[in-house]
Amino acid sequence: MSPEEWTYLLVLLISIPIGFLFKKAGPGLKRWGAAAVGLGLTLFTCGPHTLHSLVTILGTWALIQAQPCSCHALALAWTFSYLLFFRALSLLGLPTPTPFTNAVQLLLTLKLVSLASEVQDLHVAQRKEMASGFSKGPSLGLLPDVPSLLETLSYSYCYVGIMTGPFFRYRTYLDWLGQPFPGAVPSLRPLLRRAWPAPLFGLLFLLSSHLFPLEAVREDAFYARPLPARLFYMIPVFFAFRMRFYVAWIAAECGCIAAGFGAYPVAAKARAGGGPTLQCPPPSSPEKAASTEYDYETIRNIDCYGTDFCVRVRDGMRYWNMTVQWWLAQYIYKSAPARSYVFRSAWTMLLSAYWHGLHPGYYLSFLTIPLCLAAEGRLELAFRGRLSPRGQKAWDWVHWFLKMRAYDYMCMGFVLLSLGETLRYWASIYFCIHILALVALGLGLALGGGSPSRWKTASPATSLASGKLREE
């Protein structure tokens, strides 16, 4: 592990006991205490580069104040433009930010765009209310008012997920500040239930990265190995990649759980990133709060079982970095300048790659996903429904195997980063996933695989195990 990785791990582990300290605190102490801790961590890890986050916050707040009716699009343009400037600093002869500054900037971009969207929704709702002449009462997820500059700063620098996620909306943050009877919200047992696989994943990461180091792929000697060995190598590389993020995101979720952050009644049917989807009145007494069943789906960022064992490429995306996937679906996919599922996915993947960085490997990997989505959608619609139940089961196992190999293949671009090294590795295995996807797409089209709009209901298969995806 690099020194940066040890620092990330330390920040994540420290956030757990800090969460227990804040859990039962009042709204004021939660707001300003959590912001002070987050700002302190930012200053400690980023130093003077903290200025970048402050400029981004001030710019977004100014746009919200100036144009509340259209601030979402303006905030998206502002924050994404600042990302370009932020990543071009070395080309401009300015000091290069630390990796921690980049992490803070990434999460802050998501939060500020979401905040602007929430303010815009509030402004639209208020205008409709004024036009109709009567009040409809509080709407699900709607803000009570436009946050002030200090409130925006406290949300932006809240220590929860400040470097690793999970992403959360301002509404979620407000619900935590005003959480009724926080002592009745369970933390310790959900935390232990969530945390138990993390040490195993950590050991598997250390073992796999030691036995199959990524640096070997950058050496000329690697390409003298036989083709089967080169093909196989991407499997443990992606395995180590998954284990690393499983540990980080589970630890980040545990920090939220310790603070009771993102806890909602099960009846609210909360979604990762978005929060409750149903109105659920808060408990009116400690007794009712104690008898209420809660979950932490709002801040759930990874479904390890779903990621590894779902059948399709499309489903694998949903179980990975779940809060960010919600953000992408809500603010990028829905507003994409196209109606086709594949083209909307390509637009979303393009902006996701840009959000991650400017390395060509990101774009090569993310823009391979729409091809895989088109291929699996067409082929599944053309073939799977014609098979017997036993044949469909066999199909799902083959589909799962190919899905995992596709993610192995795309991961190489994500970790190698450079154009030359990514294409060199893919060429050494003859661009096998690209060719396979093109063949599958052509076959699906030839056999009448249907239109993209039908793919979402083409098959009920999402996992190799039946029933609800389980907690680790």
From TrEMBL:
<comment type="similarity">
    <text>Belongs to the membrane-bound acyltransferase family.</text>
</comment>
<keyword id="KW-0012">Acyltransferase</keyword>
<feature type="transmembrane region" description="Helical">
    <location>
        <begin position="34"/>
        <end position="64"/>
    </location>
</feature>
<feature type="transmembrane region" description="Helical">
    <location>
        <begin position="6"/>
        <end position="22"/>
    </location>
</feature>
<keyword id="KW-0256">Endoplasmic reticulum</keyword>
<comment type="pathway">
    <text>Lipid metabolism; phospholipid metabolism.</text>
</comment>
<dbReference type="InterPro" id="IPR004299">
    <property type="entry name" value="MBOAT_fam"/>
</dbReference>
<feature type="compositionally biased region" description="Polar residues">
    <location>
        <begin position="454"/>
        <end position="465"/>
    </location>
</feature>
<keyword id="KW-0812">Transmembrane</keyword>
<dbReference type="GO" id="GO:0036151">
    <property type="term" value="P:phosphatidylcholine acyl-chain remodeling"/>
</dbReference>
<protein>
    <recommendedName>
        <fullName>Leukocyte receptor cluster member 4</fullName>
    </recommendedName>
</protein>
<comment type="pathway">
    <text>Phospholipid metabolism.</text>
</comment>
<dbReference type="GO" id="GO:0005789">
    <property type="term" value="C:endoplasmic reticulum membrane"/>
</dbReference>
<dbReference type="GO" id="GO:0030258">
    <property type="term" value="P:lipid modification"/>
</dbReference>
<dbReference type="GO" id="GO:0090207">
    <property type="term" value="P:regulation of triglyceride metabolic process"/>
</dbReference>
<keyword id="KW-0808">Transferase</keyword>
<keyword id="KW-1133">Transmembrane helix</keyword>
<dbReference type="GO" id="GO:0071617">
    <property type="term" value="F:lysophospholipid acyltransferase activity"/>
</dbReference>
<dbReference type="GO" id="GO:0044233">
    <property type="term" value="C:mitochondria-associated endoplasmic reticulum membrane contact site"/>
</dbReference>
<dbReference type="GO" id="GO:0006661">
    <property type="term" value="P:phosphatidylinositol biosynthetic process"/>
</dbReference>
<feature type="transmembrane region" description="Helical">
    <location>
        <begin position="425"/>
        <end position="447"/>
    </location>
</feature>
<feature type="region of interest" description="Disordered">
    <location>
        <begin position="451"/>
        <end position="472"/>
    </location>
</feature>
<dbReference type="GO" id="GO:0021819">
    <property type="term" value="P:layer formation in cerebral cortex"/>
</dbReference>
<dbReference type="GO" id="GO:0021591">
    <property type="term" value="P:ventricular system development"/>
</dbReference>
<keyword id="KW-0472">Membrane</keyword>
<dbReference type="InterPro" id="IPR049941">
    <property type="entry name" value="LPLAT_7/PORCN-like"/>
</dbReference>
<feature type="transmembrane region" description="Helical">
    <location>
        <begin position="76"/>
        <end position="94"/>
    </location>
</feature>
<dbReference type="GO" id="GO:0008374">
    <property type="term" value="F:O-acyltransferase activity"/>
</dbReference>
<dbReference type="GO" id="GO:0036149">
    <property type="term" value="P:phosphatidylinositol acyl-chain remodeling"/>
</dbReference>
<dbReference type="Pfam" id="PF03062">
    <property type="entry name" value="MBOAT"/>
</dbReference>
